[in-house]
Amino acid sequence: MATLSTTFTSLIAEALHLPSTAFDRFFDEDQQHKLKIIKYPDLSFLPKDQQTQQGVGPHKDSMLTTYLLQASHHRGLQAQNLSGEWINCTPIPGTLVVAIGQGLEALTHGVCASTTHRVLSPEPGEGPRFSIPFFQGVSYDATFEHVDIPDEIMAIREEILRERGMDKRDDVEFTFTKGKWGHLGEATLVNRVRSHPDVGERWYPDILRRIREEQRENNDEKEMKDEVAMMEGEDGGGWKSLGERIGVFG
Fold this sequence. Notes:
The chain is of the alpha+beta class and 250 residues long. The chain has seven helices and nine strands; from the N terminus they run αβββββββαββααααα. It is 36% helix and 16% strand.
């Protein structure tokens, strides 16, 4: 799997009109990776107060790429498209599902968008769902250097965004922002604490506190934007500025 993952990222580099070795500097010489075997029991095996269909909530993986073997016939894995719709990733025998991580999105100026995905637990009586994800590792000491994406590739990205009116719906915040973190390892740790707040409360309370403060600020900003958009819809866009809108409240 290690060879497969590095071969795949070399093909991504070539697809972006880059040398096949463009991402090599972000890996250690003896790079560690991670593989897990995950069991999702069907809802009948869970206590009544835990019988929600959410097996794993919406999230993005941290590294460059993830390769998932859906080892049973159950549906449950879903990916979110640019319109915010959840699409079933129906198991296909003999195939792997590939997800793009936040690290690759950061390194490619957003050209390789990270995959927002979630898992729904099997319905009662369907039996447990098994999956085996392989997470491609990256050097935790690697800094947030962008690779030099050719102008023609960036132009394709901008054209797609223009066609969508620059609108992209995503239930999960992108956190690997350049300038916010010193190294990929730091951003990865924060992403893990964000995904597992119970672990963060015990071992990384300072990081979790900072995450929650940022989430509150982002929610407040989103609520304000939604209010402004609603006011614009009600008045037909008659206000000239945000200052005018706020001023009416004294």
